[in-house]
Amino acid sequence: MNLTINTLLDRIGELPPMQEAAQKALIMIRHPDTNMRALAEVLSTDQILASLVLRWANSAYYGLSAPVKTVQQAVVVLGKNTIQSLLFAATLANLLNRPAPGYALDRGALWKHSIGVAAGARLIAARYNPALMEEAYHAGLLCDVGKLALEFYLRDVQFDREKIKNMSFIEIETGLLGMDHAVIGKELAHRWNLPVSLQNAIAFHHRPSQAGDAFILASAVHLADAATMLLGIGIGSDGLQYPLDEAALVRLNWSEDSFTELFEKIPAAVSAAVDLIGMMK
Ligand SMILES: [Fe+2]
């Protein structure tokens, strides 16, 4: 198949862009001296985002005795990091909730998988570099978004079972389409003006030992991805072969036991995210 990166990026161009208010708010949050009042004003311009922030601040999780009635109060209760993660999850929910028949992923499967990877990546980052926890969460959410562009071209492919039996899905994508979903995901992150470290974490989430400065971030996504696959959450035709990056495991001093915490906590995070989608309807 003769696909160019531009053909695939045009396909991404057809995906819904991040809401303007969410994009503005994310830029503000990344600025070190963000004015919380201004942030609340931006969020208030979008009805869905405003109600999401309000409902989240009033959720049982925060257990506040008095109800939070304004977006201003909600912003203070939640804090910048939580709002950032919430904006990402909310923005990506509709996008990632789509079915991806080219990967045999039903509606909701890619979303559940992504939220599992995000939650797992945050846990791993907490162990190696807590300053990267939020960014790891975002990288986990976005790592497989490129599949939505590629899946269209994989729908009608008849796989030669014998030929592909020892290949990873990344090798199959590259063999058929000339690039893999990690490259496309990185390009999308670039278009969304996300930080370069996040772009690289997405680009290298299947081979983190080559991620350079983004090694911890890419490793967090890689291992969380493997754990979510092993848990069987949101896997399609690509869930059969997931080679681990041995060089990264050695560098991180990662053992089989290290997966235990992920296996325990990821399913609960996925259930909470399913509730989040329910909140947005
Ligand atoms: Fe992936």
UniProtKB/TrEMBL annotation:
Pfam families: HDOD. It comes from the Bacteria. Residues 15-208 form the HDOD domain. InterPro entries: HDOD, RNase_Y/CdgJ. This is HDOD domain-containing protein.
